[in-house]
């Protein structure tokens, strides 16, 4: 392992930024998948198509985030084994990863294709956009094996301390998606179907590229055919990853419920929320990259027995995310309508999107603090706590506030959007309390 991939020595700030920036780049490009779909359909398709992609994307995110949550366990375990200098265990872990995620992807593919219409109806997709929503989910669902493969391969590389390779994979795939959208939607006028086909094709390119690159690299493990089975590492992945996956499952269910609340307010509100969600996804990139970086960074130091360095890593992450979050917050508050214009020319949709973003904007700051805590606990395999606090903030604060605001006369999307930062602040308070409890069990001493 080269020096940049060794998180147990050297400057925390420097190494965290070196590792985090490519992850951030990967997340930006991943967000571009959905953003480009929405942007091209918004410019060259229909308003009903815009709503169809908005609702369909939420359904697909539901499945994708569950897979990526479980894949986080692969990253954590690889980093832990490297910190313990137990590279001999990596082959079995990778074999277990292929077996487990291959099975999950096949099951979810069947579910997404077979139940696309009931899911769209459950989401209260507007009548004008129902068939388009179903079409988007079925096409993307047919390529879900590729989506799963990309997320697990990226998790393996991040666990090895390599965040640059996944960035390369997704960069090329994003270029394919952009050209695919322009050709199929703007050129052939295929509307939602064209956007979905372009997305699946881009994921396919990403997976093929990543496999070719892996074959040419010298990796710190040897994968044999006999490793690809239900070995003991499967239970470790499930033990560490299932709380994260369950949290993502229920959190995404809450976003589906929120989408349904907004859909009930009409087509303009539905489309506006869809546009705002894409802006929101970019706002959340810094905290998201922080959490992924923190999980690897902390896990490697825990494996090496360097608890104080793991703690300092969390504080460094909070400082990085909070500082950047202030500028993002100001950008959303003052230029949210301009950001919405990137996705649509419909003035009513732009107004609704900006209305929601005004309430959501503080999330840019507070989530950086919350996700640093979550990355720290993930790195310690305290994933059950991460799940518990996530569910508490979702079902005690976010959903009740959003629902209450949505049923008011002349319901305001600003107040619905404000539910997110309120829930996050509640989560921060929970994590601060748990930290003092956990610190007593694991004293932070000089190394």
Notes on the structure:
The chain has 447 residues and is mainly alpha-helical. It has 17 helices and no strands. Helix 2 runs parallel beside helix 6 and helix 9 runs parallel beside helix 15. The chain is globular and about 55 Å long.
In short:
By secondary structure, this protein is mainly alpha-helical. Helices cover 82% and strands 0% of the residues.
- Helix content class: over 70%
Residue runs with pLDDT of under 50 for 5 or more positions: 443-447
Mean of pLDDT: 83
Q: What is the count of helical runs?
A: 17
Q: What oligomerization state is this entry in?
A: single chain
Overall body shape: globular
Strand segment tally: 0
What radius of gyration results from the CA coordinates? 21 Å
H and E order = HHHHHHHHHHHHHHHHH
Please give the alpha-carbon distance between the first and last residues. 22 Å
* Biggest beta sheet attributes: none
Strand content: under 5%
Structural classification: mainly alpha
Q: Keyphrases for this structure?
A:
mainly alpha; 17 helices; 447 residues
Give the topology, please:
Blueprint: H1 12-44, H2 47-83, H3 90-114, H4 116-122, H5 130-142, H6 144-159, H7 164-187, H8 191-216, H9 232-263, H10 267-283, H11 285-303, H12 307-341, H13 347-360, H14 363-379, H15 383-406, H16 413-417, H17 419-441
